[in-house]
Amino acid sequence: MTGGGLIDHASREAYTHLMQTPTQARDLAQDLVARALAAGATAADAVFACDASTDVQIRLGALEDVQRSESAAIGLRVFDGKRSASVSGADVTAAGLATLAERAVAMARLAPEDAYAGLAPEELLARGPLEPLDLDDGLDPDPALLRDLAERCEEAARAVTGVTNSEGGSAGAVRSVMALATSHGFTGSYGGSRYGIGASVLAGGESAMERDSASHTVRFLSDLESPEDIGRRAGERAVARLGAGKISSGAMPVVFDPRAGGSLIGSLIGAISGGAIARKTSFLLDKRGTAIFDSAVTILDDPHRPRGLRSRRFDGEGLPTRPQRLIDQGVLTGWLMDSAAARQLGEQPTGHAARGISGAPSTGPSNVHMAAGRETPAALMAGIGTGVYITELIGMGVNGVTGDYSRGASGFIIRDGHLAEPISEITIASNLIDMFAALIPANDLSFRYAVNVPTLRIDGMMVASS
């Protein structure tokens, strides 16, 4: 629903009745698994997900868009021995589920055999009651409240001196439910809420215009940062980018703002996924149990963080999750594995299976963060004569096989230990093995995203300015 009016109560009720409770979602998934076995599958698992969202967009103080949407889908994976197939659909009526099950079994019988296919080991499944992780505040905010938050956020951004235009302010709320059932004894489900505010504005004139933004996403409405603070930060970031300078190309220290530094963790996660290790396509293939970071660096995966954006008690195959150190005082502790990758490697799955509605599970982390270091960001930069402070990374120039790293970037020049003029259209390059070994974390860790890092310094990177 879009346009100039807010969603009325009747419309919201029409959407809301389609949502399933966690118990109803679990029952649907179990029903589909039972139908698959009745249709001839030797094993099966099913996942059901639904969500309802409300989003409000404001631009230049006027209501630009209001949307209320709801989606629900169910996915089924069936096995005929070592043959498997996956199907998905949105029809959760008895007839729809029966058709989905029959189609999946027929497809599996035509599929090639896969020696590593199968459900997670039964003896490793999560058992007993699963304690909640405080992921749902139970609210369904009125669109009028979301409009007020979006208006206040954009107004604060536009009030910053130097801001000349706006791409808009936004506020949204999502309620979701996920359930998983397997034919060998696991059932689980949970609900969650999510709220977000953001603004994107422009500063300067047509000949020299810069854009930047700020946002905040949380599980509980009460945890949202002030919309005025978010908007003000968006405006100040855009203005700070005006007057870009130049820097000579060469090797120098690079400091990553926490907004940009989290992407380095993404490169690490990709390299230690079981699939990459099994395919021998990881630059960390022979590094398990060795120090790849300084001893001051510890990186943790914590699926049990209360109100965490990726918190979960069980993974996409029904295995229990647990907090663990991916990097322990610089040492790479092991791989993240779903069951298929674990079988291929002759090891045990680690509770890191990620699951969508369609297809087989893949590998994915939960809430990941790098532990804070000892020095402040200012102290981290104090000894830098010339360097760059990166606030934004562009492009995907990372080779997962070799670790070669080259990305476009923008941010600020560091001169004599202090931030100086902004800089854009630069390229930073190195190899991730060298970057990890040289990385130093600051002490300013805060938890705002699914992946969180403090300010990071890496010496010796090549910087090229256009």
UniProtKB/TrEMBL annotation:
Domain Metalloprotease TldD/E central: 138-242
Family annotation (Gene3D superfamilies): PmbA/TldD superfamily
Domain Metalloprotease TldD/E N-terminal: 53-108
Entries under Pfam families matching the protein: PmbA_TldD_1st, PmbA_TldD_2nd, PmbA_TldD_3rd
UniProt domain Metalloprotease TldD/E C-terminal: residue ranges: 249-464
Region (Disordered): 348-370
Family classification: Belongs to the peptidase U62 family.
The name this protein goes by in its record: Modulator protein
Protein's organism: Blastomonas aquatica
